[in-house]
Amino acid sequence: MVYYCTRCKRLVEIDYEAMGIRCPYCGHRILIKQRPTLVKRVEAV
Amino acid sequence: MDIDIIELSDTKARFVLNDVEPAIANGLRRVILAEVPTMAIDYVNIYDNTSVLFDEQIALRMGLIPLITDLESYVLPEDCDCGGEGCTRCQLSLNLSAEGSKIIYSGDLLSSDPKVTVADEKIPIIDLRERQTLVLEAVAKLGIGRKHAKWQAGVGCGYKNMPVITIKEDCDSCGRCVDECPRNVLVINNDKLEVTDPLKCNLCKLCMGICDIDAINVIEKPNSYIFNIETDGSYPAKELVIQGADTIILKAGQLKEILSEIE
């Protein structure tokens, strides 16, 4: 799963079962999940 | 049946409907509220949304934008030859592609059919900040108000009985009824009690209660109704009433067909 690190602004691939939620480059623990590129259909209700 | 028009504009109509049964007046009211087909956004395909709102919230806002309805070019999805799957006869798309920082209004939606556009271009959808983007395609379909309020063309529709106010000769113009009336319908002019605008009367009959000598009388005129209609902009008010009457005729025809099949 690709995340976005809020400190070093890099896209990082993490394996949270092995190392937990942590940026492998800077060690920051606040990561943002990237929006998938597919189209999302939402009912307008 | 006859109609006296009091006020008529694009979005509002006020008229007196005379010589009709209460059932017909109520039928017209209910049909305008819930049965006249109107265009509204049914679902939204979101390609990108980096704004502060969730996709679902934006979709809900899009759904509530009134669209100008063209009943000649479009049919209800359930009546369409495609069986409601979606074709050019039963749906159209509106596109939006915007980047901040600015407020995105309903007028920024680009319709694929120039006849079906937003009824009001100044409805704010979202306030985008710098580097926030919103790219989406909204698909609009015809529907009826019974299904969802976004398909409700007549947003305000109601009627009241026509009041008839009579002042007897023995009125002493004491003025107590003038003070009592909450709608300021009565006025004393040259020491004589007069009715300014009977249409404003809400039939509360407080004036009758305060008068000791029973000089004033307020009654409801039978089979006469004051209609107040307000549209969301998808139809002009006049067109909405005509569509309401057409829908009643259509439904009566369907009932006749069903009954004729019973042996």
Question: Features of this protein?
Answer:
heterodimer, A: 45 residues, mainly beta, 1 helix, 31% strand, B: Gyrase A, domain 2, RNA Polymerase Alpha Subunit, Chain A, domain 2, four-stranded antiparallel sheet, flat
State the end-to-end distance of chain A.
Answer: 31 Å
Low-confidence stretches of chain B: none
Computed CA radius of gyration of chain B, to the nearest angstrom: 25 Å
- Strand line-up across the major sheet of chain A: 2-1-3
- Which chains make the largest contact? A-B, 8 and 21 residues
Give a quick account of the main beta sheet of chain A: strands, pairing sense, barrel closure.
3 strands, antiparallel
Large-scale geometry of chain B: flat
Radius of gyration of CA atoms of chain A, rounded to a whole number = 13 Å
Q: Give the tally of structural domains of chain B.
A: 2
* Total separate domains of chain A: 1
Give me the strand/helix succession of chain A: EEHEE
**Fourth-level CATH superfamily of the largest domain in chain B:** DNA-directed RNA polymerase, insert domain
